[in-house]
Amino acid sequence: MPTREQVIEFIQTSPTPAGKREIAKAFGLKGQEKIALKKLLKDMAEEGLIDGKKTAYHRMGGVPKVTVLRVLEIEDGEAFAIPDAWSPDDASPPPRLRVVEAKGKKARQAALKVGDRILARTEETGRGWTAHPMKKLPARTDGLMGVVEIDKSGKGWLAPVDKRVRTSSPIADLGGAEAGQLVIAEPAGRSPRAGVKVVEVLGDPLAPKAFSLIAIAKHGIPHIFPEDVLAEGELAAKLPLSHDSREDLRDLPIVAIDPADARDHDDAIWAEPDGEGGYRAVIAIADVSFYVRPGSKLDREARKRGNSVYFPDRVVPMLPEVLSADVCSLKEGEDRAAMACHIRISPQGKVTKWRFTRAVVRIAHNIAYEDAQAKIDAGEAPEWLVNLWGAWKLLADARAARDPLDLDLPERRVVLDEAGKIAEIAVRERLDAHRVVEDFMIAANVAAAKALESKTAPVVYRIHEPPSREKLIALRDYMKTFGHNLALGQVITPSLFNRMLKDVGDDNEKAQVMEAVLRSQTQAYYGPANAGHFGLALSSYAHFTSPIRRYADLLVHRALVDAFHLEQPAPRGDLPPASGLSDRDREDLSKVSDAISQAERRAMEAERETIDRYVAAWLSGRVGEVFDTRITGVQGFGFFATILGLGGDGLVPVSTLGGEYFAYDEASQTLTGGDSGTKYAPGDKLKLRLAEANALTGALKFELPDSEGTIEPRGGRPDPKRSGKPRGKHMQGQRGRPKNIRHQGRKR
């Protein structure tokens, strides 16, 4: 029997009025089931869920009391939706419903994103249509992006590109697609047996830039600017700089230190000794708030995107390129509008004074991290670079005294050639030059938060809460397996974890503990209520230094404009005059903070999955080779390992470990052979043979070099090339793959 929700969804998406007969046929109901359906429909009519006609259950105009909606946009943390299957008799546009949680119900909006489908009760009020969500429905596109495969009988199958989707779907309608093409599909009917139909052909899945396109489509990342937004960007870019109303810092040798391939430069730094053992310094940040005004089309689009998304082959910018890569970018020799943070660094490395101004700057040098480091190492650095290193050493001393969380987490770097093909995948080198910029940015971010607090102004904080007690207990139990004790009776600080890591002498064991500490941490987010930044060991922290690529930073800039009376009205009447916070943001920062936190998580997932696909593509030509690996996680169904020096996480299924019985111990996270006593634990180094590298999903599979088990074919269809070797026996433990958390410290 179908549920109430399934019946409603069928009625609302049916192209023709659906009566009891059509509903019974759709769900394959017979005999007594039809009688039960009749009673169900009667009950639903009495509850007001359907209109109750005997022969045709359908909407009678307007919006049904209960219907399926699709989230169209999220603005200021508030979701707006339209009916998922809108087909009124006239050609009027679908109604736009504001999604509001019913009183006393647990909020669901934090989990909603553009494109989500929800079942909701609706009502028409004086303010328009309102929807109260009942439940979130599976997305129609889940698992429906994939590659067309044609079997020997000529039947089409959709092989999914999402590693979490294990089975292929039969294709009922190819829509002109050919074997090997990347496509988007949708269900062809109510039953999964009906298969799918291709609705869009994307082309060659292994072509340059295809991997990022997969992530963009899967996560619904806005990547095409509307024409009116581009037009407004061109207007904003022509705003003249008023030198008279800005502090003139063009004589300072301010330098922007960035990656060699950076296209946007949103920060630059300068320092000189103050004659008292400390330094004066300026952190100049692109004055994006001057060009992107609250309530403008540019602003609404930037808010919707939340942040720029960085892939190896492209950047999906938060702002149009005329701003992000040109007018707002701090380029060498060009006059640029900047928000200047002036700080005084004491001989002990503490920031003792700060002030904020709107300024005009002329960047003296754009220099790559590697080039700056090379000049310092060779003793050939000019004075402006020597001063930056001198000021940084004081900041670094203060950082060491603060003792923030110190996890040595390598970051993979994908290098592409001119044709867009993979030239190299390596671990990104961590230089002092990176630390110099990072510590200057942290100092400016702290100064921005404290400056706004001093004015009792609204702040969008960057919040990282301490680990939860549940995670700490799990970490304590895990540490006991190594003979280490984590006492929970004390105040938990980053220093505690740092000392714990220093006490671990064995490299293998340290790697395990480091990953365990990482998994115990909470996820950082944005919010208006200060809870400190645990990882950085800071009581107040905000993001101020990257307004070109983060909307949170733009909000902080606007708050500074208001708090320190830095307003500069736009001289053009076709752009909003104010550049400070809007009344809407000032009244409720929590909504926009939630929205940009969601956008950040979306970007991180998309970036991580794309890197996984590039790594798998890089390794696809090396299937069969044996690699040095380290175990990163163990579950009852097998263990995960990563290739040393390269990355690339893959599964070793327990079915490949031979015929002996393997027991999984959740407390120690180990698999132990019942006969041999062989044990597999996180951190163990071992040689593994690469058995599978799927570039489309980013999935890798390994096996022991002398494996006698089998790798199950992916896709849910028999693989005639594999023989029926015996599968290993094992004890299933906790299901589900552990989160693959990596360091996201791109620049700061």
From TrEMBL:
Residues 723-748 have a biased composition (Basic residues). PROSITE patterns: RIBONUCLEASE_II (PS01175), S1 (PS50126). It is an enzyme of class 3 (hydrolase). The keyword Repeat does not apply. Transmembrane segments: none annotated. Its EC number is 3.1.13.1. CDD domains: S1_RNase_R. Residues 571-591, 702-748 are annotated as: Disordered. Keywords: Cytoplasm, Exonuclease, Hydrolase, Nuclease, RNA-binding. It is found in: Cytoplasm. Residues 624-705 form the S1 motif domain. Residues 582-591 have a biased composition (Basic and acidic residues). It comes from the Bacteria. It catalyses: Exonucleolytic cleavage in the 3'- to 5'-direction to yield nucleoside 5'-phosphates. SMART domains: RNB, S1. Belongs to the RNR ribonuclease family. RNase R subfamily. 3'-5' exoribonuclease that releases 5'-nucleoside monophosphates and is involved in maturation of structured RNAs. NCBIfam families: 3_prime_RNase, RNase_R. This is Ribonuclease R. The gene is rnr.
